[in-house]
Amino acid sequence: MVGALIVSHRPENPIGWIFCAAALFQALSAVGVEYGTHALVTRPGSLPLGAFMLWLAEWIWAAGLGLIQVFLPLLFPNGRPPSHRWWPVAWLGGLSIGLLSGHVSLLVWL
User: Fold this and answer.
1) How many domains does the structure of the chain reveal?
2) d(Cα 17, Cα 68) in Å, to the nearest integer?
3) Tens digits of per-residue pLDDT, 61-101?
4) Other CB atoms within 10 A of residue 98 CB
5) Residue range of the domain that includes 63
6) Cα Rg for the chain, rounded, in angstroms?
7) Which backbone phi and psi does 27 adopt, to 5 degrees?
């Protein structure tokens, strides 16, 4: 709700989009667990892609949490880092989130 409220009033500010993306990733994680459990445990074979949804749920939450922990403090309050010297931190944070999510997704898959 916070992200949608910020985006509706200030769509150019990345803070709202960060909140929206983090909420989407957390929702995918929660829905994925329930969907996968229903498709594979409660009523096996009743829904397609049950294993995929459980796999997605196991790692997608890390991307949402990483967005909140890295980019929210870095870009708050106006959507820009405090100075140009902070851009390498933003790149390193984005790379770290991507590598961590990719690594966890591969570990869960294998």
Assistant:
1) 1
2) 11
3) 999 999 999 999 999 988 899 999 999 999 999 999 999 99
4) 12
5) 2-109
6) 17
7) -65, -40
Per-residue confidence (pLDDT) for residue 66, from 0 to 100: 92
CB 57 within 8 A of CB 32: yes
pLDDT of residue 108: 85
Three-state DSSP class for residue 73: helix
pLDDT at position 54 is 93
Average pLDDT over residues 45-73: 93
Which runs of consecutive H residues, i.e. helices, occur in 1-110? 2-9, 14-37, 50-66, 72-75, 87-109
Peptide bond connecting 48 to the previous residue in cis, omega within 30 degrees of 0:
no
Using DSSP's 3-state secondary structure scheme, residue 43 falls into coil
Check: CB of residue 87 under 8 Å from CB of residue 75.
no
